[in-house]
Amino acid sequence: MTSFWFFIVFLCVGSITASPDRIVGGQPTNVEMYPSIVQVEFLSQLTSIWSHNCGASILTSRFVLSAAQCFTGWNSDAPFRRIRAGATYRHFGGLVVYVDEALNHPSYGSSGIGGDISVVRLKTALFYSPTIQQATIVTHGSTVPDNHAVVFAGWGRIFSGGPHSHVLRDVTVYTINNDLCAQLYGQLSVPLNITQDMICAGVLNVGGRDACHDDSGGPVYFGDIVVGVISFGYDCANGSWPSISSAVGSYTDWIVETAVLT
């Protein structure tokens, strides 16, 4: 995050006191409602075509916040990644900026499914506008109480195995107790370790609302504050296994330090 106004990172770290007021039910929305969200696109080395891959949130004019999984493995190096800011429609419009380097959290890959968070440096600065704005991230150590509404937003698949949404969508779900969530994921044939560095959210025993494939890296909002980074789930919108996101409050100090010192 030099021309990125590093001091604004500190000004835009907030507490989780706002109440969410987003559209419920997975409806199309527009980037004016979420000006800090951006698309992450990748370049296929096989087809030389850019495609939508993940979401991210603007930290400063030079850094965005995403998931480490979006910048790990084959074809994930910086030359094959770019972001699109200020666009309501997937892979269309807005401002395209290329990635310089992704700084994944040191624990990612060494602690099961934990640490799925990345601070991504851009090659050139974003220009702020009504549709391109900084996110406010939660203060370090803050948590979202159980049974509170949070909002997912992104351009991912509209159902498991289905097509991507051509337009930005949002959906309201509810936070679920992490211990209960750990019990649910412990029932899988390959149990997953759910920790306090994660946010579990969905509509338990009902389903029908969720993030899905290629929403990873996108924001989880509590009011207007980014409290999570979408990480993974078992199936999409499955009432038995809610979605798991990285809890930003567990990483805020690292995010700010990484943005200022790199």
Automatic annotation (TrEMBL):
Residues 1-18 form the signal peptide. Belongs to the peptidase S1 family. GO terms for biological process: proteolysis. PROSITE patterns: TRYPSIN_DOM. Residues 23-260 form the Peptidase S1 domain. Transmembrane segments: none annotated. This is Trypsin, alkaline C-like. Keywords: Disulfide bond, Hydrolase, Protease, Serine protease, Signal. InterPro entries: Peptidase_S1, Peptidase_S1_PA, Peptidase_S1_PA_chymotrypsin, Peptidase_S1A, Trypsin_dom. It holds the Pfam family Trypsin. GO terms for molecular function: serine-type endopeptidase activity.
